[in-house]
Amino acid sequence: MSENKDPHVAHTSESVKFVYDFTEGNKDLKDLLGGKGANLAEMTNLGLPVPPGFTITTEACKTYLDSGEEPVELRDEVSAHLDALEKKMGKKLGQADDPLLVSVRSGAKFSMPGMMDTVLNIGLSDKSVTGLAKQSGDDRFAWDSYRRLIQMFGKTVLGVDGDLFEDALEKTKETKKVAVDTDLEAADLKKLVTKFKKIVKTEAGRDFPQDPREQMDLAIRSVFESWNTDRAKLYRRQERIPGDLGTAVNICSMVFGNLGPDSGTGVAFTRDPASGHQGVYGDYLQNAQGEDVVAGIRNTVPLADLEQIDKKSYDQLMQIMETLETHYKDLCDIEFTIERGQLWMLQTRVGKRTAGAAFRIATQLVDQGLIDEAEALQRVNGAQLAQLMFPRFDEGASVEQLGRGIAASPGAAVGKAVFDSYTAIKWSRSGEKVILIRRETNPDDLDGMIAAEGILTSRGGKTSHAAVVARGMGKTCVCGAEDLEVDTKRRRMTVGDTVVEEGDVVSIDGSTGKVYLGEVPVVPSPVVEYFEGRMHAGADDADELVAAVHRIMAYADRVRRLRVRANADNAEDALRARRFGAQGIGLCRTEHMFLGERREMVERLILADADGEREDALKELLPLQKQDFVELFEAMDGLPVTVRLLDPPLHEFLPDITELSVRVALAESRKDANENDLRLLQAVHRLHEQNPMLGLRGVRLGLVIPGLFTMQVRAIAEAAAERKTAKGDPRAEIMIPLVGTVQELEIVREEAEQVIAEVVETTGVDLKLALGTMIELPRAALTADQIAEAAEFFSFGTNDLTQTVWGFSRDDVEASFFTAYLEKGIFGVSPFETIDKDGVGKLVRDAVAAGRATRPDLKLGVCGEHGGDPESVHFFHEVGLDYVSCSPFRIPVARLEAGRAASHSTGSDHR
Prior knowledge:
By secondary structure, the protein is α/β, with parallel strands linked by helices. Among the domains are: 262-352, 2-Layer Sandwich (D-amino Acid Aminotransferase, Chain A, domain 1), CATH 3.30.470; 390-523, Glucose Oxidase, domain 1; 559-648 and 688-900, Phosphoenolpyruvate-binding domains (TIM Barrel, Alpha-Beta Barrel). The protein has 36 helices and 31 strands. The strands form 6 sheets. It has an 8-stranded mixed sheet with strand order 12-22-21-14-15-16-17-13. An 8-stranded parallel barrel has the order 24-25-26-27-28-29-30-31, surrounded by 6 helices. The chain has a 5-stranded antiparallel sheet with strand order 1-2-5-3-4, sandwiched between helices. Strand 16, helix 18 (465-473) and strand 17 (476-479) form a beta-alpha-beta unit. Helix 23 (611-635) runs parallel beside helix 27. The longest helix has 25 residues, at 611-635. The two termini are 27 Å apart. Substrate binds at residues 589, 644, 776, 797-800. GO terms for molecular function: ATP binding; kinase activity; metal ion binding; pyruvate, phosphate dikinase activity.
């Protein structure tokens, strides 16, 4: 077992402490005590009403997962803490007359709602249930608690199919002709306990354990093992949570919300997690235990109703919520139970929130003086900003509204209705967009929730499983749409006389809770309109969000070191990029200028077998290229424009060899073969490549086809001269692609400098055009010190660099086996999405150091897709690049993340 390195933990080399009382920990020990345990300890230290208990550390879990056995010291430590708990409570675990009952709950460092195991009411048995009934004066409560224990223990610890318990419960309700389980009487629940025990015996091959300590030990082991369940692994991959953290286990003395109408349980937020607005937000359920609320199986009442139900507990809860938010300086998510008028705090954590809420709350907390601007910047991220830039529904559209639920997680989602996770996954993999519709979701639905565009449930509230998980994933979600009758067995949903069958298109609005039949048209996001200069901060809700985004973006721009450029190939894209805050163009792909009508000119150029033909083709292309650059330099006047010389895989500009062969064969069979087609086919055969991505492209094409690169350089130079003459400020940079050796760059550079000198002499305009290269081959990165001798700048082409380092063809592998690699945990995320720091990143890091050792003033940037990826931007800041370049739409994301990377605040992790 690895030695615990946490500086807050006292230990010796001989022993490690595996169990901590709630009075011993604090909120900074999340690595050791998990988020739940650390925060229970913190609330205890604050003097808040927390039921006594203790936490088994993540180190114990990791030891168990590594060896298959608990640490030898663990049992004795648990016994010592249990003994202390029993003395504090004045009762023993599971004793017959007045039993102490405990809950056994998971609690990892990062919140994983519903992904791991929890067992309540540990300590109940055939003997102690009568003692609990006598002590509480409520037979129904005691037998309800016992059936809950057998149900949870059977499912989570003994692996019994949970539907067997649910079916037995439903049949009992049908027999008694009641709608909800709270209408069942003690005698009904007693019979249900007998049925549940028979299910356990049949399915698990053993009796339900009557020894309370055996119950607790087995539940602890089950929580350890739940760290590696498929659903937990999937959630960690989705949320990028490391797999080696392990989970803590919290043993907490039970308090009961199911003791009658003066008892209950609830979940509260110190601010609205969907909008960020201040107020009273949450759900409350009378006569219930905590799992009833988050499972969404019974519809709750709004937290505000608690003021009428139990004014004393409501006032105390409001005061505690204010205390916690001020202490944590953030939105807090709170679980509580009221036992016969006594309020108990069961959990608090920094709450998950939607993207819009994240920006609003961050600025609100600044205005309240709780955090500074640097911390506010750490409270949001690029993924959230990207989400805010998605379109929203056009509320003025003429569409049929089916119903309305609770706006649990915003967004505009459209897709075909599906009623189980398997179908959601199957249809989405075949390219269909789907909406997963359930009565309520549970952790087993995680795969389907990930696959779906959005989630719709007829039960549950803002704190249900569906709502919490959807917000964490940034998925659109509408919960508790009570007018919708969901029939998962018949795969349909009915609303009045309207029937929605599986496959019918529905639209859900996670910002309003509205549900529509059919596809609703969308309109631009107000955040996009702000970035494009069409919207300003005002008074309404959308303007309030824009104001929050504006403030945080302004701070990010002030503190960031990385400049942000755009990948743009024409004036229209360049102008849009500039509106989005681009500080130049980092990649202009000139091959995109040769598509459409110009393709035939390039084809003639490539296939030309005589100098005259080639020169004619180049003369025809030159004025067109020059005009392209004039427009681009005008759009980006005063800002750098990096123009990459032609870099297409050759097959993109040649006729398809199969189609051409068939055409020639058919013509020959008709004896009317076209001489030009025959000549073309011979040339295509001569130039055909098995792997065009590794063939005649980039600098190789420029060296093999005389005049190609010099034509482009001349067009760039003449366009720059024309703009200067027109009093413009063109700042062109010429980039040579796919260089693998300095000799290639030296040859092209010499030719380019000669052309530029000719244009200077002809026009009389002084031009200073930087010449550099892309680093997109491993050899280029490994010989960066040599290449820097001939380059004034490097731009890392991380798309090709990833392909060549990994030996992956991006066009093929993502569709063929990446899904399997992600599912098996080989990748946490695609290396084409986020840079592979250990492999590709090491080459980038080493090339930066080697290049600058040769040329200290070497300008360094990146122009692959990674330039707009939030996590990758932090890496590029760390290794010392000067700029990142990305698509226009990703520029705000890159600006924000560049600011976050530069900010010295450690911030908070809102994973």
